[in-house]
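Notes on consecutive records. When two proteins share a document, each keeps its own sequence and its own token line. Never mix them. Below: protein one.
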Amino acid sequence: MRSLLLALSFLPLLTQSTNIVLSNDDGWAEINIRVFYDMLTNANNSVVLSAPADNKSGTGSSDAPATPLIKPCEFNSCPTGSPAQGFNASNPRLNYVNSYPVTSMRYGIQTLSPKFFGGAPELAVAGFNVGANLASTTLISGTVGAATEAAKESIPAIAFSGTTGSQTAWTAPIQPYVNIYAALSTNITQTLIASGKPFLPSNIWINVNYPAVSGTSCSSTRDFKFVLSRINAAGSNAAQDVRTCGTSRLPTEKSVVGTRGCFASVSVGRADTKGDASASEQAVVLGKLAAVLSCLPS
């Protein structure tokens, strides 16, 4: 209930129910994805979780057929000998895939979505990841790999990552950073949904990263501000970015997250390269998320 109250108090608007596939690279039984699942569901969405059976952080866009378990799932969430894909007995919308994040996301889109939604999902979200995924780290992040896989399959996608936290079982007490990151991620998701379809241009995904949460800094969702950013630093001959905050060069996501004051980065990427999108594609996201975007202090 405390997760629900926090999320609802932060969300600026109500939106229609949306069919969402949720994945990550930290594993299906990690606390972050389970709390995020609850918040997205409590925000009136129809959500299916399809994530690796074990921690697959840093596996990028690796892909392989799922295989039966030769050891227990992470945190003993399923026993040795379990099938290659399985689900929680009390909630069949919580699914594991004994393979990589990309494989898990594809299973969610191609197998679970027709079962639960009667067709393809309307949106895919990945995370929120244990640890930030900034700049070149996007190339090896399994969370980013899952999001870009969805975008390649024509499903608009968002990857979320938080600086604070460590691998934690879903049964552990919920720490403040988990609720904060989950509420912020739900807010961005609901804002995008409220902007209307198509949610994103073809081949485009959004990369969201949060700074650290502590008892004295960034300890409430109200402390945070979202800033449109670039994944990578622009070269000397790089084309201009979308014009916002008085400039045609967006700050890098590293500089946003590193700025004092609880700033979260929102970068627009291309799924085929995991690099930055064009100014016109950035402009689409700027328009859709304008209600929650801010500028860095001058």
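Protein two starts on the next line and is unrelated to protein one.
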Amino acid sequence: MVDWVSLTVPFAYLGILVGSLATFSSLYRKRKAARSSSLEPWFGPHLQRDVYLSLLHLEPEPGKDKSPVVPDGVLKAALLQRAVEDIRRILEVRNAKPALSNLLQRGSVGDDLWQRFLRAEKEIEAELRDVVEEANALQSGWGQTIFQSANEMHHNTMLRKKLNTIQDRGKADKEWWQQEKATIKSKFMKELEEGGKENSKPIVAARGDKTGSDEDTVLVEGGGPGAASGSKSEATKKRKAKK
């Protein structure tokens, strides 16, 4: 005869074990979802998406039943700007993922940052699907080429920013060089003036020494024993003439 009591105990134990594991898993998932939802988003607000949605769902003006009709060209331009912003975010995520993964393996960053990054990837994937659907709704088949056009626009914008930065840096360098050139010129002219003054002083001194030597020579020639004997002979001649 089968002992049902002995068979019930193991089944009851398995049921309790499976139920506790399911409860723990459910609580863990709920806590993880609540924790991830409370984390700060990786990107800021998507202004281009908000602009497109506000244009797509315009509310009627006061006193009117129908909302104003937005031209398709305006909607396409807004959707294209939204796709450009999505391209920028895709590139940022793609460039940050290898470095962030290495830092996570080394333990340099916490799990919260990694969860924020994973949530940002999921949001971008959902955003891309939404943009493709909206593009196909506005124009059939546009969803296949909208991101190609957005990528070209993004590259042109980045190139224009680089060119503007180079031009601004060139203007700053030109102004600096003009100032530096003026400073060097003023220093050089000052050194030339000081050198000219120093060179003129020895010439004046040499001329003064030469004049003094000439005067000394004249004085020496004017005096001496020869001159004294000449004066004595003239005096004796005068005396004899008187006699």
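For the record: The helical segments are 4-38, 47-56, 72-106, 111-138, 146-222, 225-242.
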